[in-house]
Amino acid sequence: MNDTSTSLELSVDANQRLISFGAAAGSALLAIQHIGQEAHGPDWMVAATALTSAAAWIVFLVALRRNQRLFKRPEGLAYRKQLEGDEMLQRIQKEAFTWGFGGMLATQVVMILLFSFLDPHFLTIPVAATGTMAAGIVTAVLRYQTLWSR
Amino acid sequence: MSKDEQSRLLNQLKVRRAMKDMTQGALAEAIGVTRKSVNSIENGHFVPSTELALKMARVLECTVEELFRLPE
Known about the structure:
By secondary structure, chain A is mostly helical. Chain A has helices spanning 7-38, 43-72, 74-84, 87-118, 125-148. The longest helix of chain B has 10 residues, at 50-59.
């Protein structure tokens, strides 16, 4: 009996990984870029993080487009229907969302503690906003990928 | 027995599939989930809902109790 993954499944999975890690790396590097800017870090570091963040978001968009194209093919449409009705995927998505939300809340608590006790000058609104967003995305992505790749 | 092993549901999916000469993909298609889900259920990583267990039993022409059982 042939129980191996089809090339379509493998392609969709590979694109999904690029989408997930592209968003995670893009948002994390964006937060680091803002910390660098607010902390008056070296220009090369700010430029490097800005460029790599942009590159990660480009990877995210390209993989998203590739998956959209795959899902337009007849076999892709059938696989998409299977994914939409898949209860394991739905449970994984819910759990990843919960973890992501938890990650955002934990980051907020850490930031409040940092601001209350250390008063770091770099903790501005852009840093807090991008940092919270990155924490949520990274946590959700890691949880999703861990559960999906079991 | 560890806590993880205790919470696992034992199953006869692979045997029942073989008896019906069905691939994971064919079973997945018949019950409307992905092949990965069927694989995860077979390996005990994912516990299916009652509805999904009933669908599997119907496709494999057996009872849910013949497909799944709790560890001793």
